[in-house]
Amino acid sequence: MPRLATVALAAGAALLLRRAVRSRMRSAPLWPLPALETPVSGYGRGATVPRRVLVTGRAVPAEGVVELRLEGERLPAWEPGAHIDLVLPSGEVRQYSLCGDPARPDVYRIATRLIGEEHGGRGGSREVHEQLHEGVEVEIRGPRNRFPLTAAPSYVFVAGGIGVTPVLPMVRAAEAAGADWRLVYCGRSRASMPYLADLVRLGGDRVTVVAQDESGHPDLGFLASVPAETAVYCCGPEGLMAAVTAAMPEGRAPRLERFSGPAPAGGTAFEVELRRSGRTVAVPADRSVLAAVREEVPGLMYSCTQGFCGTCVQTVLEGEVDHRDELLTEAERADSMLICVSRCAGRKLVLDL
Amino acid sequence: MSNTQPAPVASEHVALKARKVAFDWQETPLHWVPGDPFTTHTINVLHLLLPAGERWFVHVYQQALPYITDDRLREDVIGFIGQEAVHSQAHDDVLPHLRRQGLDPTPYTAQVDWFFEKLLGDRTLPPGRARRWWLMERVALIAAIEHYTAFLGDWILNAEELDRRGADPMMLDLLRWHGAEEVEHRSVAFELFMHLDGGYRRRARTWALAFGTLVFLWQRGTRFFMENDPGLLDPKASWADFYRRGRAGVLPSTPAVLRSVPRYLSRSYHPSQEGDTAQAVAYLAASPGANGGR
Q1: ipTM score assigned to the predicted complex
Q2: Is the pLDDT of residue B147 over 90?
Q3: Percent of chain A beyond pLDDT 70?
């Protein structure tokens, strides 16, 4: 009989507990677990979701430049300075700045200048010019923004040639915000400079046009005296960006957008310092950081070796990274890299290894 | 001792590699099993648990890696980590789609995040025995959970009733790609546990914890989805619903779930005795999502 009493007692206790839990959960359905203050899950970074867009328009805004109108459903919002990765028919991936209207949720615009192989082109722009006609479906990734427009009372924009693409929406945003801005727009000739008329119409005498065939190189002397609160943005050829950097006042740097897309494999040689182990590894042009570092640190984690799984992520302490992965967010890119594909944009990286 | 090391079925071993996947959710309706929100949401709970859960697997295994003294097992564990990382991303990428359809998952996922990142996280333990004990406990938990992911993987690969009822092909492909990789790597977690610890008492204890927690989180997730589904007038969810759908073949059957319990607790258990690697590999070769989408 004592067994029966025990069973009855246990059953009674279980029933009471169930009622208590039920009424508690009715008042707060997600009781009793606490939540993480800044949730990590639930926002999907989209690395496994392809986004296909249709080329629905082609225009020629300047000599040798093609503008594509890309249409898709529910395209992610973007801000001036953002770019997308475009997967070309050959499978190669190139980055292009968005140059349309950020308020349009269904249309992206990009523009690309044909760069022949004789001028160091790697075939991406040729594919865009020759294969992406109206009605062709392409896959894109992103957008991402490495060149964000921060709020400032005044702006100076310096654009060179096709480098005007990220600057165009920036100028429009600055104008819409009522900011004081000026633009120096350089190019080989007026006919080769896209969106020139639009910009002049928008800015009037705030736009200084410097066409090389008329007036040679731009005079950047005014940059030496730009006020501290003025944000300076520059996108264009390396030479122009170097000139703008040199013309800035002591201790100040312009914000730059580099147009050197990722090379398909390899790149230049550089060095990687492993700070915790106190060693320095040379990474040759034809090897990945992962392959080079693995010889020094055999237990290194990695899996896909193509920049999508994220297993090989490492913390970057110093150095500018040339990110070539498809996974990390801009915030993560600030201090980490996927060493299976990403490389160094300068001569040396320092990793926390 | 309790370490009767059961032998794996040798032919079942394959080299593991993360696959690049692509799943497009634009066409997937909210109730992707037509007319059956209960089944839809019971399976949808995977999207709530797996992003944080599989990230946690990766986190724990990264710490376990230095203790592995068998080269082939280390290769397997690294392959496992890569696959789990992609699983976590792929399920997380479904959640914004649910939110767009009016079903915001974040109140629940924020709790799952807390569960895995804080409750089962690293904790401030002194290096040495305490830290190793906590690591082994978590390695054993993962082995127990992987028993169920392999069980579910094998189930979804064979759940033809879902096809017959017109379930969304994109969602089925995500589940079957994931399920097939779970079947493919089903031995890794158990072998790692046996390699590092293998104690039967720990195995039984962590099984009870994992099973109880899974049941708790799962029923809670189903209720959460049902109650917050904007298109449902009657959001009730009960065990009877689960049982009936198990009989119909659109969810795992309750007897099959119960039968899996003694199998894991058997001293001669080895995951390679369950599931069918050939079927999994064949699915992966044909899956649209696992081959870059469309």
Answers
A1: 0.80
A2: yes
A3: 97
| Residue A198, pLDDT above cutoff 50 | yes
Element holding A317 (H helix, E strand): strand A313-318
Using 50, 70 and 90 to split pLDDT, how confident is the model at B131? Answer: very high
- Looking at the domain assignment, is residue B249 inside a domain? yes
Class of domain A51-143: mainly beta
Instruction: Supply A151's token pair.
Output: 């709020």
Q: Do B113 and A39 touch (CB under 8 A)?
A: yes
B294 pLDDT exceeds 70?
no
Q: At B140, which amino acid appears?
A: A
Of B66, B100, B114, the CB nearest to A36: B114
| Chain B CA closest to residue A302 | B78
| DSSP annotation string for A7-30 | HHHHHHHHHHHHHHHHHHHHHSTT
Nearest Cα of chain B lies from the Cα of A105 at a distance, in angstroms, of 15
Across the interface, whether the CB atoms of B89 and A47 are under 8 A apart is answered yes
How crowded is the C-beta side of B20, counted as CA atoms within 13 Å?
Answer: 12
**In the predicted model, is pLDDT for residue B2 greater than 60?**
no
Give residue-wise pLDDT tens across range A202-212: 988 899 999 88
**Fold classified for A154-257:** Rossmann fold (3.40.50)
Do B84 and B58 form a contact (C-beta atoms < 8 A)? yes
- Would the CB atoms of B113 and A301 count as touching at under 8 Å? no
Residues of B whose CB is below 8 A from A35: 107, 110-111, 113-114
Spatial distance between the Cα atoms of A234 and A184, rounded to a whole number of angstroms: 9
Q: Given an 8 Å threshold on Cβ–Cβ distance, is B78 in contact with A302?
A: yes
Q: Which amino acid, residue A17?
A: L
Question: How close A221 comes to chain B (CA, Å)?
Answer: 49
Instruction: Please tell me the CATH code under which domain A270-351 is placed.
Output: 3.10.20.30
- H or E stretch at A119: none
Distances (CA, A) of A169 to A64, A108, A109, A186, B109: 21, 12, 11, 17, 36
Model-wide pTM > 0.80: no
- The mean predicted confidence, pLDDT, of chain A is 87
Report yes or no on B202 lying in a domain. yes
Number of domains forming the structure of chain B? 1
Asked if residue B69 lies in contact with residue B31, where contact means CB atoms within 8 angstroms, the answer is no
Question: Is B286 a member of any domain?
Answer: yes
Supply the pLDDT for residue B11: 59
Which of the pair, A319 or B13, is modelled with greater confidence?
A319
Helices (H), chain B: 37-64, 71-92, 95-100, 106-114, 129-157, 160-164, 169-184, 186-196, 200-228, 239-248, 254-265, 277-286
CA distance B87 to chain A (A): 9
pLDDT tier for residue A95 given thresholds of 50, 70 and 90: confident
Rounded CA gap, A110 and A332, in Å? 26
Q: CA A195: distance to chain centroid?
A: 23
Tell me which amino acid residue A262 is: P
